[in-house]
Design goal:
This protein has about 60 residues and is of the alpha+beta class. It has one helix at about 10-15; strands at about 30, 35-40, 50, 55. It is built from one helix and four strands, in the order αββββ. It comes from Candidatus Caccousia avicola.
Length: about 60
Amino acid sequence: MAVPKRKTSSARQNKRRSNVWKLSAPALARCPKCGELKAPHRVCGACGYYNGREVIKKEA
């Protein structure tokens, strides 16, 4: 049978049990132009604006 060679230290054990490894939800920001939720520092998918300028032509 497979048996551990050494005792797992409490620090290693606590690291494994901590919630550090859980994924967090992505941050979202409101587009100042249209108000849709978008990822920060990305072009808005709804209106095509970024930093006050039209980057992608979107049809209304």
